[in-house]
Amino acid sequence: MKFSLKSITSNIVPVFLLLVIVLIIIPLPTWLLDFMLVLNISISLIILLMTMYIKSPLEFSIFPSLLLVTTIFRLSLNISSTRLILGNKGDAGQVVYAFGHFVTGNNAVVGFIVFILIAVVQFLVITKGAERVAEVSARFTLDAMPGKQMAIDADLNSGLIDEATAKKRRSDVQREADFFGAMDGASKFVKGDAIFSIVAAFVNLIGGAVIGLAVEGMDFGSVLSTYSIATVGDGLVSQIPALLISTSMGMIVTRNASEDNLNADMRQQLTSQPRVLCIAGGVMVIAMVIPGFPKLACLMCGALLITCGILLMRSAPAEAEALAAQAAEEQAMEENKQALSEMEYYKDIDNVYKLLNVEPIEMEFGYSLIPLADEASGGTFIERVIIFRKQFALDMGMVFPSIRMRDNQHINPNQYVIKIKGEVVAQNEVLVDHYLALDSGNVTREVDGIDTVEPAFNIPAKWIAEEDKLAADMAGYTLIDPTSVMITHLSEVIRQHAYELLSRQDVKTMLDKLKETSPATVEDIVPSVVSVAYLQKVLSMLLKEGVPIRDLETILETLSDYQHTLKDIDITVEYVRQALKRTITRRFADAGQIRVLTLDTETENKIVAGVKKSEQGSYLALDPVTIQKLMNSLNEQIERVKEVVPSPIVLTSPIVRVYFKKLVDQFIPNITVLSFNEIDNTVQIQAVGNVVIS
Questions:
Q1: Is residue 678 classed as helix, strand or coil in its secondary structure?
Q2: pTM for the whole thing?
Q3: C-alpha separations of 71 from 20, 43, 48, 75, 83 in Å
Q4: pLDDT tens column, 226-261
């Protein structure tokens, strides 16, 4: 059988704990107790040094459990030594004897007082303070967890970190909270250990005196000498490791703000201000004039501090240059390393293919706008995006993909850019410390500001400084904060390009969700009647004209009912729109009525006559003169009623709608064209204009 270091140490902790329990029960020979006491001191030193050289408490995350193990070990040794002191005429081994004689110096009273002072220092000063720090750290860490998690999510959404880094940071936040929570409870172990040591000392002293006088027949002087030395030695050999452990606990819970190990932090921070050393040295030199003060000691201490301060001030420029050179060298090495690693990375052709990935939606910010999107800085932009995603899903029946957010140093600091599938589709500038003021029609007086245009709807506006906000509000302006300006612009861009963002995978997900409630509908129609690709195209055409696709079941059933028209997708979509007439009416009607522009009969007849059929479907072929007259008439009617109908709607017969819509989009984009069959009977139609080809 082969043995390795890993196999030997794999069970060392359970075995050690079992041996510790055995130490409490069975008596130990003095030589074994000596070894155990030396081992206890060694372990305490290792723990103390570990806490000095770690940079973060999580690097020593086993400390709470280790604190429990060492406390049990120390208590078991204390019990074993007490058994030997009381049962072996005060002889508990060489370690206890050496500690007792070294500290007491043949004076038991002095030794006992020193022991009590060490126990009190550990109990009241170090342990009490460390316990309070751990308690406060645990509370603050738990309170800060939601903010830290949101900051991690913000960095992930903005592309600053990848999923693996975000997962590690979330784990670190959770581990940090668990660590300080455990430390808050583990500090009670050390406090109880200090109390037990004092109790054990009195037991050893009083019990030893009783046994020595009553059982052993020793005189009082011998009893006092023998058992007091043993008591003090036992107490010290127990309290010294306990003091080291409690000091370690204090250090580890106060390392939150450190960036390096304790030695490096001490050296760097205490020597960072040489002038302070000179001033302190000067004060010590002046203290020589105080009557009774040791002049030589004050002079030596002051001279030493002043000398150190002068040397540090002289070496500061050289150290700064050395640090700058080192930083430049490290940066150059890092750049070379990154270049080499990048070359190695792109040797794999699969990694080159990753560069071809295109984000569906991206948003880039100038550096002045980053606080608006950074939740750690109080920004609410990401939260507003989440709210809009929910509302968009309710309104349109589609969940748009995640938005990749990142900073861009190459654009204007106040500028943001919106990209769809890698290409810029919109951009604008906002002023962080201003409000966008819109004329609501009730403005009583002009307010000074920077003239601009509201980006979502191209409305004339002004940027008003924050100190003029109250005056603008009193003047009747509608004020919009910068975050709302950006989120409104983004929402309109997403609505306009929703048909591009709907992928086949999105449609497949929607079908899977529908299958949970209406499995028969999905299984009978997809893919036997229509494919996912065809359904995607139908849904995209509906979204392009602002028709919600939330009622997917009705859409599928309509496609099944009119499957004989599937070859001409334009006609098929018209049937789907008619099946969704309640949805369309709700979207475009206002207060039970809808104001529209209509086409006269002759105009519609000319459009129908111009429809041509081909193998790919139908299309409209009108001569340029007729098209020009038609568009001129439509523009005139729109201008005439724009005060009454800001968003014009043209109402046509069902057979004309699709062809007229395609024609109008070439000249007047974003105009709504509906057919009579798409209006619910409960809505009153009010014609405010008539388009005629003159």
A1: helix
A2: 0.54
A3: 10, 11, 14, 6, 18
A4: 677 777 777 777 777 777 777 777 777 766 555 555
